[in-house]
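Problem 12. The chain below contains 112 residues. Write out its predicted structure in token notation.
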Amino acid sequence: MRLVERHIIKITHQFYKEIDDLAWRSKNLYNYANYLVRQWFIREGKYLNNAAIFHLVKQHESYVALPRKVSNQVLIVLHRNWKSFFEAQKAYNQDASKFLSRPKLPRYKDKT
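Solution.
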């Protein structure tokens, strides 16, 4: 069971700009790491694991700007998404009738 806590922060809140900036940077880090993994997977046919991704993005401006725990958690979420893609692909190859279409690569987050 996952327990979550939801905070709704309005535009008028004093920390809104800072939170918006952090969310934007985490989105940029996710998209950059996903781009690297996708390109490697398309060209080489292999998956870059979490450690390899870390070494490629550790100097990226968004990785450095975020707290380390947050940056690493973004990479873990990306890894989990790719792992789900591979599991779905394996299930699709065993029995395609369970799916409406072939599983697609993890997508990028919206630019804004």
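Discussion. The chain has a mean pLDDT of 94. Students who got a different answer should revisit the alignment rule from Section 12.3.
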